[in-house]
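Narrative progress, year one. The postdoctoral researcher (J.K.) led the effort to move from monomer predictions toward full complexes, under supervision of the PI. The following entry was the first complex the group processed end to end, covering 355 residues in total.
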Amino acid sequence: MTFLLRCVLVCVSILLTLYLLRRIRHSKMKIEDSIFWVMFALLLVLFSLFPKLADFISGMVGTYSTANFIFTFMIFILLLKVFFQSVKISQLERRVTELIQTFALDKEEDKEKEELNYESNRE
Amino acid sequence: MTDKVLVVIPAYNEALNIERVVGGVIENYPMFDYVIINDGSTDNTAEICRKHKWRIIDLPVNLGLAGAFQTGLKYAHRRGYRYAIQFDGDGQHRAEYILPMKEKMDEGYDIVIGSRFVTDKKPHSIRMFGSRLLSGAIWFTTGVMVNDPTSGMRMFSHKMIKEFADGLNYGPEPDTISYLIRHGANVAEIPVVMDERILGESYLNPLNAATYMGKMLFSILLVQSFRIRSRR
């Protein structure tokens, strides 16, 4: 890895972290949801500042090269994230459906009651 | 609990058909209760129903057939209907078969399917090939032969209404049928004749149909086998 490339990587990961933090602050994201992104960004900074750390873990788990380790590791984390996101979307969809149905059913019930009242008042 | 049958009519942009279909049911079969589920139609389906003072539930946004039908079954559950039948708003289903289906239900079945192929042989077309595949998959996983798994004309018992009303993943589709059979539901079929849709467009173009078949097969053969049934 050339010195220039390293500088670029460090800069990019730090900028990304700052950008994420800024967005999180402004978009009023729930803290528990932002934790993942903060950790992720910090991890990038960590790896770019101390590439030896990645080399060390890579050697420990026995991957062929550090690059392979980084790729596998990141893809795994992102896959997990996507899966949990998918679960969450499913739950959200279900809740929205439930809400819409209850709303529509309640509205119909109210209308029927009103009609009944109207008729009984007329008699 | 009322002994009546609730006819659930999901309708999405069926302004061309709804008058004929629902009018036919209401005029000729006053012994059945009915409810129209307007699934967020963008045409004047709702206005037509209002004009006739038909009983209609308006979903503010489009939920798709599964969500709309579930709304109908929630309604049936709230009012304590003993039976509920899915009846398409596009004019494919004939109301004359509702009574025979109810009579079949009275024999103690949980689900009665209005089937096009109990007595008649299936014609050899690509679409029927899909139907055969689904029948085969259901037979393979449950040991029960369902001749017309894609028929939309299905009647459900009180017990099933409760499950459909509360459950997630209870779309009115073949995979749900296979799942319910596997968990002890008794299914019967009676022969019916269905009409071709007269007006308006069906969403079933060849590509959609193939995707649908693939999804259903995958669901019946694989996904349903590791589903846990929640006991409420």
